Amino acid sequence: MQALEGKDSVLIFEDYRKIKVLSSFSPVHVPDNNWAILAEIDLNEAMTPLSSIRNNIFLVSTIISCFPVSICIPGLTENHLAYIQIKRSQ
Predict the structure, then answer these.
(1) DSSP tag of 42
(2) Which of 26, 24, 49 minimizes the C-alpha distance to 36?
(3) pLDDT surpasses 70 at 79
(4) Residue range 70-80: average pLDDT?
(5) 39 vs 7 pLDDT, higher one
(6) Per-residue b/e over 45-80, b at no fewer than 16 CB within 10 Å?
(7) 15, 6, 86, 1: which is closest to 44 by C-alpha?
(8) Going by fewer Cβ within 10 Å, which terminus of the chain is more open, N or C?
(9) pLDDT tens-digit map of 40-66
(10) What is the residue extent of each domain of the chain?
(11) How far is residue 43 CA from its own chain's centroid?
Protein backbone atom coordinates (compact mmCIF):
# COMPACT_ATOMS: atom_id res chain seq x y z
CA MET A 1 0.00 0.00 0.00
CA GLN A 2 2.85 2.41 0.87
CA ALA A 3 4.45 1.89 -2.54
CA LEU A 4 1.21 2.92 -4.23
CA GLU A 5 1.34 6.10 -2.12
CA GLY A 6 4.75 6.92 -3.61
CA LYS A 7 6.91 5.63 -0.75
CA ASP A 8 9.76 3.15 -0.96
CA SER A 9 11.18 1.18 1.93
CA VAL A 10 12.68 -2.06 3.23
CA LEU A 11 10.82 -3.74 6.11
CA ILE A 12 10.89 -6.94 8.11
CA PHE A 13 7.49 -8.36 9.02
CA GLU A 14 5.51 -11.60 9.18
CA ASP A 15 3.88 -12.70 5.96
CA TYR A 16 0.69 -14.72 5.47
CA ARG A 17 2.58 -17.89 6.56
CA LYS A 18 3.54 -16.24 9.89
CA ILE A 19 7.21 -16.33 8.80
CA LYS A 20 9.41 -13.23 9.01
CA VAL A 21 10.32 -11.87 5.59
CA LEU A 22 12.56 -9.11 4.30
CA SER A 23 10.40 -6.99 2.02
CA SER A 24 11.43 -4.17 -0.29
CA PHE A 25 9.00 -2.05 -2.28
CA SER A 26 8.99 1.04 -4.45
CA PRO A 27 6.62 2.88 -6.76
CA VAL A 28 7.06 2.37 -10.51
CA HIS A 29 6.49 5.48 -12.57
CA VAL A 30 4.51 4.56 -15.66
CA PRO A 31 2.49 7.30 -17.37
CA ASP A 32 -1.22 7.08 -16.60
CA ASN A 33 -0.71 4.09 -14.24
CA ASN A 34 -0.16 3.67 -10.51
CA TRP A 35 2.15 0.68 -10.23
CA ALA A 36 4.51 -0.65 -7.57
CA ILE A 37 7.20 -3.29 -7.42
CA LEU A 38 7.60 -5.59 -4.42
CA ALA A 39 10.22 -8.21 -3.56
CA GLU A 40 10.19 -10.53 -0.56
CA ILE A 41 12.54 -13.19 0.75
CA ASP A 42 12.37 -15.24 3.94
CA LEU A 43 14.50 -13.53 6.57
CA ASN A 44 16.39 -16.75 7.40
CA GLU A 45 17.25 -17.21 3.74
CA ALA A 46 18.39 -13.59 3.41
CA MET A 47 20.61 -13.80 6.50
CA THR A 48 22.25 -17.15 5.67
CA PRO A 49 25.28 -15.53 3.96
CA LEU A 50 25.81 -13.32 7.03
CA SER A 51 25.71 -16.32 9.35
CA SER A 52 28.18 -18.14 7.15
CA ILE A 53 30.58 -15.17 7.13
CA ARG A 54 30.27 -14.82 10.93
CA ASN A 55 31.04 -18.53 11.41
CA ASN A 56 34.03 -18.39 9.06
CA ILE A 57 35.45 -15.33 10.86
CA PHE A 58 35.05 -17.13 14.20
CA LEU A 59 36.79 -20.25 12.89
CA VAL A 60 39.72 -18.35 11.39
CA SER A 61 40.09 -16.22 14.54
CA THR A 62 40.17 -19.33 16.71
CA ILE A 63 42.81 -20.97 14.53
CA ILE A 64 44.95 -17.81 14.47
CA SER A 65 44.71 -17.34 18.24
CA CYS A 66 45.67 -21.00 18.86
CA PHE A 67 48.76 -20.78 16.66
CA PRO A 68 50.95 -18.77 19.12
CA VAL A 69 49.89 -21.05 21.97
CA SER A 70 50.85 -24.15 19.98
CA ILE A 71 54.28 -22.63 19.39
CA CYS A 72 54.83 -21.62 23.02
CA ILE A 73 53.75 -24.84 24.72
CA PRO A 74 56.55 -27.04 23.33
CA GLY A 75 59.09 -24.36 24.23
CA LEU A 76 57.77 -24.09 27.77
CA THR A 77 57.75 -27.86 28.14
CA GLU A 78 61.29 -28.11 26.81
CA ASN A 79 62.53 -25.39 29.17
CA HIS A 80 60.75 -27.03 32.09
CA LEU A 81 62.29 -30.43 31.32
CA ALA A 82 65.75 -28.87 31.01
CA TYR A 83 65.22 -27.15 34.38
CA ILE A 84 64.21 -30.46 35.99
CA GLN A 85 67.32 -32.21 34.59
CA ILE A 86 69.56 -29.43 35.91
CA LYS A 87 67.97 -29.70 39.38
CA ARG A 88 68.38 -33.49 39.41
CA SER A 89 72.05 -33.31 38.47
CA GLN A 90 72.82 -30.88 41.31
Answers:
(1) E
(2) 26
(3) no
(4) 63
(5) 39
(6) eeeeeeeeeeeeeeeeeeeeeeeeeeeeeeeeeeee
(7) 15
(8) C
(9) 999 988 888 888 888 899 999 988 887
(10) 3-44
(11) 13
